[in-house]
Amino acid sequence: MNKLENKVAVITGAAAGMGKAIAQLYAKEGAKVVLSDINESGIKQVAEEINAIGGMAIAVPGNIAIQHDVDALIDTAVNTYGTLDILVNNAGIMDNFVPAEEVTDELWERVMGVNLTGPMRTIRKSLPIFRTKVSGTIINIASVGGLQGSRAGAAYTASKHALIGLTKNVAFQYADQGVRCNAIAPGGVNTSIGDTIQSPNQFGLQKAISGAAFNPRSGEADEIATIALFLASTDASFVNGAVIVADGGWTAY
To answer: Gene3D superfamilies under this entry (predicted)?
Structure first.
């Protein structure tokens, strides 16, 4: 039997990279997937590809930094498939490696809006559904930047540290209500998040890449998707509040 048979999963940032790989794997394992991204044509294409091979997928374009779009996303999932079982907060953006001395309010708020406030809002919207069912799984895609001090600029680093804190808070506080909340902290993965970097700050960039020589290799989106499948399945029934590092050993040095 498929690991996610008849489960309903919402996946943000699903037009490419890790989000797309997670959506495809979840669908292969029997889940009905609801895809979100600001890239409307991208998620529609992913949904079409999943449906073409016998899966079940719908695309809900939107920006998780906007409350209305979050409400529409979760409401559409429930209205279409009757419930929600799995929430994957994958959408994220970089911060041009801008250090604290030079970070602007606009950059800080934009990065926090997508990387932290968005996941908070999707979690907040999903928890009443999970609590009613006494069952639900949340997976936040964090980063080794949420464990280390300088894998990016100040805003991205702060957002991912905070996302890990949010993960642990939700995990403990709702554990007795059937909710599990875990995070994955990828290292360097070949995805399109680099497209969100424009004119990187050279001081911050040099600081961030100073440890790049210790990175054994870059990962692939499919390698993160298999971890997300494990966390969403009953195989991980006793895993809650965990941060699974997937970086090929980069942070082990």
So the answer is: NAD(P)-binding Rossmann-like Domain
